[in-house]
Amino acid sequence: MGAKIPVTLGPKHFTKKGDAISFLNAMLSRYDVGDRVSAEDAVILEAALARHPEAKERIGAGIKNFSVRSAEYGTKCFWVNRLDGTTGKFSHKKI
Questions:
Q1: How many Å apart are CA 21 and CA 73, to the nearest integer?
Q2: pTM for the full model?
Q3: Separation CA 16–CA 35 (nearest Å)
Q4: Those residues with Cβ within 8 angstroms of residue 64's Cβ, 6 or more apart along the chain or in another chain
């Protein structure tokens, strides 16, 4: 059995990665497609994105805000809206 690895995402602390992912899943479910993520949740998402294996590419020119948009197969996901006007989706499960 694998060791529990604690995860901190901004002000939130989790005893294991799975708990952090569950928290982010619940966050995503609170938003509808087209919604902009609240400033409070954006702090947590920014910390999650910093842990992403492709963080540098996903962050790009810098983060303006986050939103929820459609993804493949009718699902929804978090999108980073960058300072230069570009956007990109990212998987919060890859933290």
A1: 20
A2: 0.89
A3: 28
A4: 81, 82, 83
